[in-house]
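Sat 14:20. Reprocessing the chain from the morning session after the first attempt stalled halfway. Input below, unchanged.
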Amino acid sequence: MLKVGLLGSTGRVGSLLIDDIQEELDMKLGCVHVYDDLKKELPSGVVVTNEISTLLSCSDIIIDFSSPKATASLLEETIKQKTKIPLVIATTGFDEHQKNLLIEASKIAPVLYASNMSLGVAVLNKLVSIASKTLDGFDCEIVEQHHRYKVDSPSGTALTMGETAAAARGLSLDKVRVSGRDGDIGARTKDEIAVMSLRGGDIVGRHTAGFYNDGEYIELNHTATSRHTFSKGAIRVAKWLSSQNIGLYSINDCLGL
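Finished this time. C-alpha cells:
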C-alpha cells in the first residue's frame, strides 16, 4: 500500500486529492502538510504537520500542488536529507532558482514535474510539437483562460506549450515570446510566438494553440471542466513514478508519448 504525502492540502486540487486517494485500492493518504487551517475531514491515522521533514518521513511518495515557495522548501529538504522519496511536482510559477532545485533534487530522488497533470493536456502538447514542426511557416499563437483567482500568468501549461512549439522550430521561447500587444507596434514578426492570458469567472482551464496561414488555420484546444482531471492525473503519475529510478521525468514519460 503506497502511502501518499500531500503538499498543498488546503488548495483546490489538494482538497480533491484527499477524496480521490481514498478511492484507490493500492494507495492511501499517509500525511498532509498544512500551513493554515485544514477544514476537510481526514481518514483516521493520517498525520497532519507543518514540517516538511515530517511529511517526508511519513510518506512513500509526495504529491505537490502548492506554491513555488512551498515546493522550494520540499526540494531543499530532499536535497539536505538526501531522501529518495519520489516527488510528483505540479506547482507552477517557478523562478530560475526553483527550477535549479528541481534539477538538483532529481539527482537524489525520482522527480516528475508537469505544469499540468491532465492526460489530455499531455496529448495536446505532443500535438503542438507535431503541428509546429510540420507547419513551420504558420504563425503560432497560444491563448490560455483561467478563473479570476489564478495568481500566475501566463499559466505554466501555456508556457510549456510555447516552449514545445518553439523547440519544434529550433527556437528559444524566451527570445521569441510576446506576452502583450498594444499601440502601433508594427507587423507581426516571422518567428514570434504569442502567449496570452485571459482571467474571469470560474474557468477551470482552457488552452488553445493556433497555427495561422494565408487561406487556412488550425487550432488545437483542451478544456478542463473539472479539477478532478488534475487530481486523478496526479494519482496515475504517482503510481508510475513510485517504481522509477532516480531522475527527472515528465508526464510524457509516464504516458509513453
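Residues 119-134 form the longest helix (16 residues).
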